[in-house]
Specification:
Layout: H1 13-21, H2 31-45, E1 48-52, H3 55-65, E2 73-77, H4 82-89, E3 94-98, H5 112-115, E4 120-123, H6 135-145, E5 148-152, E6 160-161, E7 164-165, E8 172-176, E9 190-194, H7 200-207, H8 213-217, H9 237-247, H10 250-273, E10 286-287, E11 293-296, H11 300-312, H12 328-333, E12 334-336, H13 343-347, E13 350-353, H14 361-374
Parallel strand pairs: 2-3, 2-4, 3-12, 4-5, 5-8
Antiparallel strand pairs: 1-9, 6-7, 6-10, 8-9, 11-13
Length: 377
């Protein structure tokens, strides 16, 4: 059997987890959390990095920091995970979905401005598959309309846009360390990147259940108390310890995944040349992280048949999101602006292949063999 995903395990995670367990600071913001924060701030070049219990919670923190409330509108693609929308719906916002680009499945930056109203407060670009959205255009629109930008970079660690790390271009960036991502903090986890210094202190307060506990431990107040809204967004230091084991080998993991991605691409390129499939596109100026390898087939019927072929060979190939605007909650809490020209159509054609750190060449060849056989090659 070839699994769709395996969480990265580099060798030191178990030792670090045990070290965290035996320390005097097993709860949030212990030694391993601080190491991770330092790594992110130096590697990504951001004002502040704060580990969270999930990317969902990182997005929720961003919504709280921006004081999103009932009546506000938030623009995002429909082709994304539910957390992108939920974080803002929880604050009472209406989600305004716009179409995606067929080449990257990212939000179509040319459709954003038509969706802006007097109620719009935030644009949420989602960097699908770790490939950057067209951020120069998005930031220019946001600046002109006085809007905030929250990058959903759940899949984007180690990817960049024109030399800038994803998550560091907008006002905030949110990352995921779920077990399906390139790097994980023991199965679940997230990160909030803050790029505007004025939000840093309040972010620490919201993350600490609305208390100024962080200020207290830095000696800036003589006691800590409840000063704002907030919740329990701190992960345990055990989670950070596992993540630190991954981060120490971040470049090795990245290179290994990129090699697998390139191998898939080269192995299947002739099927694209012959018109059977469409391979992923990485625009100029974008450096991707091989978070996933996907390709697109003719239609939903063909995809269903191909996935059945994978299932018979016990290969974990899958499809991805069902567009949010077509879901019951999407209809209730949002609306689609403009025409759904590509979102639904492209989502029904997409197939994701197994991708993880340590995927062997034999496993890749087996996966590609099923595809070639399916198309009579």
């Amino acid at each position: 059997m070839i699994h769709f995903n395996k969480p990265p395990l580099t060798g030191n995670e178990e030792r670090y987890v045990l070290e965290a367990m035996k320390s005097s600071k097993i709860s949030g913001d212990g030694a391993f959390t601080k190491r991770c924060h330092k790594w992110f701030e130096e590697r990504l070049g951001c004002k502040k990095a704060l580990l969270t219990t999930s990317c969902t919670h990182a997005l929720e923190m961003a919504a709280l920091l921006l004081d999103i409330k009932e009546g506000d509108e938030v623009i995002m693609p429909s082709y994304t995970f539910v957390s992108t929308a939920n974080a803002f719906v929880l604050r009472g916002a209406t989600i305004v979905f716009v179409d995606v680009r067929p080449d990257t499945l990212n939000i179509d930056e040319t459709k954003i401005e038509d969706a802006v109203t007097t109620k719009t407060k935030v644009i949420v670009p989602v960097h699908y598959a770790g490939v950057a959205c067209e951020m120069d255009t998005i930031m220019e629109i946001a600046s002109r309309h006085n809007l905030f930008v929250v990058e959903d970079a759940a899949q984007g660690m180690m990817s960049s846009y024109k030399g800038k790390a994803l998550g560091t271009i907008g006002h905030f960036g949110a990352f995921s360390f779920h077990e399906t991502k390139n790097y994980t903090s023991a199965g679940e986890g997230g990160l909030l990147i803050i790029n505007d210094e004025k939000f840093v202190q309040r972010a620490e307060i919201i993350r600490e259940k609305g208390t100024n506990r962080s200020l207290f431990f830095r000696g800036m107040v003589d006691k800590y108390s409840w000063v704002d809204v907030g919740s329990s967004y701190l992960p345990s230091d055990i989670s950070a310890a596992y993540l630190w084991g991954n981060l120490e080998c971040a470049d090795e993991i990245n290179e290994n995944r990129l090699n697998s991605w390139k191998s898939y691409y080269e192995n299947l390129s002739f099927l694209q040349d012959e018109g059977f499939i469409e391979l992923p596109i990485v625009p100029d100026g974008c450096i991707q992280n091989a978070h996933m390898f996907y390709f697109k087939v003719k239609d939903l019927e063909e995809r269903t048949a191909l996935l059945d072929a994978f299932k018979k060979e016990e290969i974990g190939a899958v499809f991805h999101y069902v567009p949010l605007h077509s879901a019951p909650a999407g209809i209730k809490y949002g609306r689609f602006n403009g025409v759904d020209e590509f979102t639904t159509k492209e989502s029904e054609r997409l197939v994701r292949l197994p991708m993880y750190f340590g995927l062997s060449s034999d496993e890749r060849d087996t996966v590609c063999g099923v595809i070639k056989s399916f198309y009579g090659k």
